[in-house]
Amino acid sequence: MDSVETVVIGAGVVGLAIARALARRGREVLILEAETAIGTVTSSRNSGVIHAGLYYRPGSLKARLCTLGRELLYAYAAAHGVPHQRCGKLVVATDDKEINALAALKENAERNGVAGIRLLTPTEAHGIEPDITCAAALDVPVTGIIDQHQLLWAVLGDAEAAGATLALHAPVVAVAMAGPGFILDIAGPAPAQIGCRLLINAAGLGAQRVARSLHGLDHATVPRQVLAKGSYFSLSGKAPFRRLIYPLPVPGSSGLHAGLDLAGRARFGPDVEWVESIDYRVDPAREPLFVAAIRRYWPGLPDGALQPDYAGVRPKLAHAGPYDADFLVQASRDHGVPGLINLYGIESPGLTASLALADYVADQARV
């Protein structure tokens, strides 16, 4: 049986960033990915937004790591040639009843260290984005967008340059404690057993399954997972906005927003659909829901301009918005198993926070 010092389960952006951080600190790292390519699940099925940190509870992991991770990610993208744009966004109040909530959001964002935000009148907002309709808006210049796919490859390249190794199509089906370490049973086309002393469970949607496969871990420490499917519809024709446009958050969601890709194409989403299993098909019947939500801030949306695009599934810990449930990072002090770190509920702003989250996990890694 082969063995390595450290195994990271999951080659999404968070798992790759953790592997990079550990390898750069001199650790021997093997990354195990169940799929046949990196980042094919959550990391490539999101909006590609570099978030500011507006919504999260001050002091929470999401707030701290989003704010820190945002600037780390901008610097990393610039240094590694990863396409990105600090395009900014407007959060809009669509009627007078929402203006107080917008002001409260500004106060929360400032407590999280988000700089440069300002409240706009309808006239000021219209001057920036002539096609929107709102009662007020919050201008957030630090928000941006990034090419998730090129980011994934850049982080993997860094990890491998520091000595990390990636194994694809290598699902972990069982884990046993063995002295000061673990033995992993790996399925796939080349079944094997691997021993390690430090185990990082960054399996995203599969994190709870991996944790429950570990013989000796108290399953009471494994939180319930709920699945939030988010669909996106793309816009035919020219994008009406230069910035991202977000309505105020609604229960269970950050709101159905207008996004952009780096080619300037517009898409709308994600919505929230609570599901029992993973299904990436976009239901065309959801289009009227999108149209009604979009026309609250963009009445000029033409009939028939939306087409189903793609969907993702977020690994949530509660039927709540992304600002209600925090990231959960469990080390031995939390579950009693030395050398094990489990990451749960790493949804938005996981991509934005990935580099900061990786340093946070690496700081806790003890063998």
Largest sheet: 9 strands, mixed
Order of helices and strands: EHEEHEEHEHEEHEEEEHEEEEEEHEEHEH
Tell me the number of structural domains.
2
* CATH class category label of the largest domain: Alpha Beta
The CATH level-2 architecture of the largest domain is identified as 3-Layer(bba) Sandwich
The share of residues in helices is: 25-40%
Structural class: alpha/beta
And the CATH topology of the largest domain? FAD/NAD(P)-binding domain
User: How many β strands by DSSP?
Assistant: 21
Instruction: Tell me the overall shape.
Output: elongated
If you compute it from the alpha carbons, what radius of gyration comes out, rounded to the nearest whole angstrom?
21 Å
Can you count the helices?
Answer: 9
Average pLDDT, all residues: 94
Summarize the structure.
The protein has 367 residues and is of the alpha/beta class. It contains 9 helices and 21 strands. It is elongated, with a radius of gyration of 21 Å.
Describe the structure.
The protein is elongated. Helices cover 27% and strands 27% of the residues. The chain folds into two domains: 2-45 and 149-222 and 324-364, FAD/NAD(P)-binding domain; 89-141 and 226-316, 2-Layer Sandwich (D-Amino Acid Oxidase, Chain A, domain 2). The strands form four sheets. Strands 1, 2, 9, 10, 11, 12, 13, 20 and 21 form a nine-stranded mixed sheet that branches. Strands 14, 16, 17, 18 and 19 form a five-stranded antiparallel sheet that branches. The chain has nine helices and 21 strands. The longest helix is centred in the N-terminal third of the chain and has 20 residues, at 61-80. The chain starts with a strand and ends with a helix. α1 runs parallel beside α5, α1 runs parallel beside α9 and α2 crosses α9 (350-364). The protein has 367 residues and is of the alpha/beta class. The protein has helices at 13-24, 61-80, 99-111, 122-128, 148-161, 207-212, 287-294, 332-335, 350-364; strands at 2-9, 29-32, 49-50, 84-85, 89-93, 118-120, 136-140, 144-146, 165-167, 172-177, 182-186, 192-201, 214-215, 226-235, 244-247, 258-260, 266-268, 273-275, 306-316, 328-330, 340-344.
